[in-house]
C-alpha cells in the first residue's frame, strides 16, 4: 500500500457512494471519507516499528469518531484523552480503564478524583498537579499509573504554533530550570513512576523528536540513580505523538521503522530496555487515511483570479485558512459522477469556502483542469485534525462522514440537521 489513498481508490469510493445514494448529491454538498484499510496499514507499520512491549494509544483529538476509536480499541491499542469529553468517548468506545491515558493541562479536582478512582493512566502536566493528586490520593484508593510531563526544551520545529519543546511551553515542567524540583518529586512521591513528553505535532523533524526522547532517557537515568537507595525506578516513558506525515504526494513521509529503530537503539544505549514505552500518535494514524469531497457551487471568473466556491472552508480546515504558509493539501477535481477530470486545459483557482470572512480560502492558485458547477474538489489527506476542529461559526452543518472498510461503506457520522444547529444555539 502507498502512503496516500490513491486517486483510483478515491474515484471508486466516491462513485460507489454516489451510485448507492449513500452520498446524496442534492443534500450532501460535501463529505468526509475515512478509509479504515489505510488506518490498518498505518497501525501495522507502527507495530512493526516499535518493540512488542510498547503500549500504543491514539490521540483522540486527531479523530474522535466513535467507530474509529472502536476499531482502534479492537486492535488492542489504548487511547489518549485530553479532556473530560475525550475521557467519556474513550469509555464509550470500550477502552479498558487501564488503557486510557489522561493528559490535559487543566484537569480539575473532580476530574482527577474520577480518573484516580477509575484507575486511568494519568500524566500530570505540572508539579502543582502532582501536589493536587497527592492530596486526593489520601482519600481515594487507586491503581492509576502516574507520570509527569516535562518540557525537554530541545527547540522549536518548523511550525511554532504546534511546537511544544522550545524554551517556553505552556505544557510540562521545564527541564533546564526545574530539574531539581523534578528529582525531588520522584523522591517524594513513590507512586510517580514515569516521564511524559510530547515535542510537538507536525513540523518537528525526527532529529528533534529523538533529541527530546534522549533528554527524557537521560533524566530517567538520573532519577533511577536517586531512587536506587529506595529500590525504586522509573517504569515508563510516554513519548507522545508528533511523527510528521507528508501532505505532498511527491514527498515520502518520515520512515516510522527508522524512527522506532532509533528509539530502540537509544533504550539499549542507556540500558533502559526494560522501560515501558507509551506512544500517543494521532496525525500519523489518521491524516493520510481520509479525504474530503466538496461540491463546486460556483466558478467565478474575474480578471484578478478564478475562484471556486466550495462547501468546505475554515469551518473544517481552520489551520489551513488561518495559517496557509504552514498547512498544505493537494487537490484533485472529480466530475459530478465521481470520475477524475484529467488535465487538458488547466486553470489556476483560488479554492474558497462558504464562510463570511475574507480568509476563508483553503488554498490559492491551485492548478486544476477546468472546473464546472457541480464538480467535486477532492481535498486530500484530511483524516486527522480537520472535522475534529470543526467550527460552528456561521452555523454550517457538519458534513456526513463515510467510512470504508474492506469493500463496504457505512456512515460514521450523519450529516448534521438544521435542528442540530438549533439545539447547539439553544438553552
Ligand atoms: C499530549 C499529546 N499527545 C499526542 C498528541 C498527538 O500528536 P500527533 O497527532 O502529532 O501525533 C498531541 C497533539 O498535539 C498531544 O498534545
Can you tell me about this structure?
The protein is of the alpha/beta class. Helix content is 31%, strand content 22%. The strands form 3 sheets. An 8-stranded parallel β-barrel has the order 2-3-4-5-6-8-9-10, surrounded by 6 helices. Strands 14-17-11-1-18-19 form a 6-stranded mixed β-sheet, with helices on both faces. Helix 5 packs across helix 6 and helix 7 packs parallel to helix 8. The longest helix is centred in the middle third of the chain and has 22 residues. The protein is elongated, with a radius of gyration of 23 Å. The structure holds pyridoxal-5'-phosphate. Pyridoxal-5'-phosphate binds next to strand 10 and helix 10.
Mind summarizing the main beta sheet? 8 strands, parallel, barrel
Strand order of the largest sheet: 2-3-4-5-6-8-9-10
CATH class type of the largest domain? Alpha Beta
Strand fraction equals: 15-25%
Assembly state (oligomeric) = single chain
Q: Which second-level CATH architecture of the largest domain applies?
A: Alpha-Beta Barrel
Indicate how many domains the architecture comprises: 2
Helices and strands in order:
Blueprint: H1 7-20, E1 30-35, H2 36-49, E2 55-59, H3 66-74, E3 78-81, H4 84-92, E4 100-103, H5 109-117, E5 121-124, H6 127-137, E6 146-151, E7 173-174, H7 175-188, E8 192-196, H8 206-227, E9 236-238, H9 256-269, E10 276-281, H10 283-286, E11 290-295, E12 298-301, E13 306-309, H11 318-322, E14 331-334, E15 346-352, E16 361-369, E17 376-379, E18 400-405, E19 408-413, H12 418-424
Parallel strand pairs: 1-18, 2-3, 2-10, 3-4, 4-5, 5-6, 6-7, 6-8, 8-9, 9-10, 13-15
Antiparallel strand pairs: 1-11, 11-17, 12-13, 14-17, 15-16, 18-19
Helix pairs in contact: 2-9, 5-6, 7-8, 8-9
Amino acid at each position: 500500500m502507498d502512503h496516500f489513498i490513491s486517486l483510483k481508490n478515491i474515484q471508486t469510493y466516491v462513485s460507489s457512494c454516489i451510485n448507492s445514494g449513500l452520498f446524496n448529491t442534492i443534500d450532501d454538498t460535501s463529505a468526509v471519507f475515512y478509509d479504515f484499510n489505510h488506518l490498518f496499514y498505518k497501525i501495522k507499520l507502527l507495530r512493526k516499528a516499535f518493540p512488542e512491549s510498547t503500549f500504543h494509544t491514539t490521540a483522540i483529538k486527531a479523530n474522535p469518531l466513535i467507530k474509529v476509536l472502536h476499531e482502534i480499541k479492537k486492535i488492542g491499542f489504548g487511547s489518549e484523552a485530553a479532556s473530560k469529553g475525550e475521557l467519556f468517548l474513550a469509555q464509550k468506545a470500550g477502552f479498558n480503564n487501564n488503557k486510557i491515558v489522561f493528559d490535559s493541562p487543566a484537569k480539575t479536582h473532580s476530574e482527577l478524583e474520577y480518573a484516580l478512582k477509575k484507575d486511568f493512566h494519568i500524566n500530570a502536566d505540572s508539579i502543582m498537579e502532582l501536589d493536587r493528586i497527592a492530596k486526593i490520593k489520601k482519600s481515594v484508593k487507586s491503581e492509576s499509573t502516574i507520570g509527569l510531563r516535562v518540557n525537554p526544551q530541545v527547540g522549536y520545529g518548523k511550525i511554532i504554533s504546534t511546537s511544544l519543546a522550545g524554551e517556553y511551553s505552556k505544557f510540562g515542567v521545564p527541564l533546564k530550570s526545574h530539574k531539581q524540583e523534578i528529582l525531588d518529586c520522584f523522591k517524594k512521591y513513590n507512586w510517580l513512576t514515569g516521564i511524559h513528553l510530547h515535542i510537538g505535532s507536525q513540523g518537528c523533524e525526527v532529529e528533534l523528536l529523538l533529541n527530546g526522547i534522549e533528554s527524557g532517557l537521560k533524566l530517567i537515568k538520573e532519577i533511577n540513580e536517586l531512587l536506587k537507595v529506595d529500590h525504586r525506578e522509573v517504569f515508563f516513558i510516554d513519548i507522545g505523538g508528533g511523527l510528521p506525515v507528508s501532505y505532498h504526494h511527491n514527498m515520502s513521509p518520515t520512515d516510522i521503522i527508522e524512527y522506532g529503530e532509533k528509539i530502540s537503539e537509544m533504550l539499549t544505549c542507556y540500558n533502559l530496555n526494560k522501560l515501558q514505552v507509551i506512544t500517543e500518535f494521532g496525525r500519523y494514524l489518521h491524516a493520510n487515511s481520509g479525504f474530503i469531497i466538496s461540491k463546486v457551487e460556483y466558478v467565478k471568473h474575474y480578471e484578478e483570479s478564478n475562484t471556486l466556491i466550495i462547501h468546505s472552508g475554515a469551518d473544517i480546515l481552520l489551520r489551513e485558512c488561518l495559517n496557509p504558509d504552514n498547512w498544505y493539501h493537494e487537490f484533485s477535481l472529480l466530475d459530478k459522477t465521481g470520475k477524475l477530470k484529467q488535465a487538458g486545459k488547466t486553470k489556476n483557482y483560488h479554492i474558497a469556502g462558504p464562510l463570511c470572512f475574507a480568509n476563508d480560502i483553503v488554498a490559492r492558485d491551485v492548478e486544476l483542469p477546468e472546473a464546472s458547477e457541480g464538480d467535486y474538489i477532492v481535498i486530500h489527506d484530511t483524516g486527522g485534525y480537520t472535522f475534529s476542529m470543526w467550527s460552528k461559526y456561521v452555523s454550517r452543518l457538519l458534513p456526513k462522514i463515510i467510512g470504508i472498510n474492506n469493500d463496504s461503506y457505512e456512515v460514521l457520522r450523519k450529516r448534521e440537521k438544521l435542528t442540530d444547529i438549533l439545539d447547539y444555539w439553544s438553552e
